[in-house]
Design brief:
The protein contains eight helices and eleven strands. The chain is of the alpha/beta class and 289 residues long. The chain has two domains: 40 residues, no CATH class; 237 residues, Rossmann fold (3-Layer(aba) Sandwich), CATH 3.40.50.300. Strand 5 and strand 6 form a beta hairpin. The longest helix has 21 residues. This is ABC transporter related protein. GO terms for molecular function: ATP binding; ATP hydrolysis activity; transmembrane transporter activity.
Length: 289
């Protein structure tokens, strides 16, 4: 009986010790178990941590790549919809810019205009100090093929071509010799982790693998700037992380990146963030040094 009473006393002491541990937080304040859990759960994730409102001082000494002045884009004839409204923006060389906002805010339209896939209804756009409205369509095509690389949410691979042939396609349009373009395409597929998949068609590849083929294709003509429209939008979380890691590595090698996303968790890769709402730039943020 005496042993049993001692065991009961030990259990009681242990329970008191556990209760005391639950009721004391790391900062020494007393909380009930429920209050302590609530305190942990109430800590909110801030995707903009590490960023500050951009100022002219942030861009001092940087070279302007793209300069957009009072860009408007209106769709429709009878019923007109203004998708972009007097947007002013400068993109500097070697930046990783993310355009963030809800669906319909104009972020993809803005990226398409910056990448010469679309033209503004009004305003002026300069690329390397050249006014784009003065460019002939042939000049715009050269920019899209040689200066800019494009990655889309839907991949846009040609189903009847192999991975290798899809990557080679821009180089075919640029009249590169067969041996040169094949060697470069093989090297790029190896770079994006698809060695051994060169002769697979898109239907034989996973979504993440197809997006990596699209990235290799975007790099085939050695672009100076990469435009990416929701590149992880159709991917699972694992493939999405792999694609973002690859894009970040390309940026680290000196490629300017402009990326559209609605996913604020991806902002950790950016050096600059453009927050959009209703066709306007709501806020421009710069990563802290």
């Amino acid at each position: 009986m005496e042993i049993e009473e001692k065991e009961k006393e030990n259990l009681k002491n242990n329970a008191n010790n556990i209760n005391n541990n639950l009721n004391t937080s790391h900062d020494g304040e007393l909380h009930s178990e429920r209050e302590y859990c609530k305190k942990i759960l109430d800590v909110k994730y801030n995707p903009y941590e590490g960023f500050h409102p951009a100022t002219e001082k942030d861009d001092k000494g940087k070279k302007v790549f793209i300069d957009a002045k009072k860009i408007c884009r209106i769709f429709g004839t009878d019923v007109k919809t203004k998708v972009l409204n007097d947007v002013n923006l400068k993109i500097y060389e070697k930046e990783f810019v993310m355009i963030l906002g809800p669906s319909g805010c104009g972020k993809t339209t803005l990226m398409n205009i910056l990448g010469l896939l679309d033209t503004p209804s009004s305003g002026k756009l300069y690329i390397n100090n050249k006014l784009t409205s003065n460019m002939a369509e042939s000049e715009r095509a050269v920019f899209r093929r040689k200066i800019g690389g494009f990655i889309f949410q839907q991949f846009h691979l040609i189903n009847t071509l192999t991975a290798l042939q899809n990557v080679e396609l821009p180089m075919v349009l640029d009249n590169l010799e067969t041996e040169t373009r094949t060697q470069r395409a093989m090297r790029l597929l190896n770079l994006v982790g698809l060695k051994g998949k060169e002769h697979n068609r898109p239907s034989q590849l996973s979504g993440g693998q197809q997006q990596r083929v699209a990235i290799a294709r975007a790099l085939s003509n050695k672009p100076k700037i990469l435009f990416a429209d929701e590149p992880t939008g159709n991917l699972d979380s694992v493939s999405g992380k792999q694609v973002m890691k690859l894009i970040k590595e390309l940026h680290d090698q000196g490629i300017t990146v402009i990326m559209v996303t609605h996913d604020s968790t991806l902002l950790k890769y950016a050096t600059k963030v453009i927050k959009m709402k209703d066709g306007l730039i709501e806020e421009l943020l710069q990563r802290d040094e």
